Amino acid sequence: MYLDHPTITATHSATEPDRIERLNRVYGYMVGMADHAHNKTFITKLAQLHDDRGTLTVFWREQLTAEEKSFCLKAWESQVGDGTRSVEFSINPPRGASSQSPAET
Considering the domain boundaries, does residue 64 fall inside one? Predict the structure, then answer.
């Protein structure tokens, strides 16, 4: 069992709690695809998922492979995600910045 899950944040999450729920579903979808591909390291690379008005930002601890990035894109594009391919990838945010949106960091 893996317990060091990424931080999940969203712009306007206090007034739009469905954004956090959606990110939790997307996270599960990503990890499911990684498990299906027998990729045991994907889950350890994720640091934070952030939804900023329909753009998913994936912060990582270690560089993601092209296949791992495709897990993120497919999940966000799916029916449980936003239905778009609006995904950005970034290095792990600095300590203390996890509750801020990428535009604020």
Answer: yes
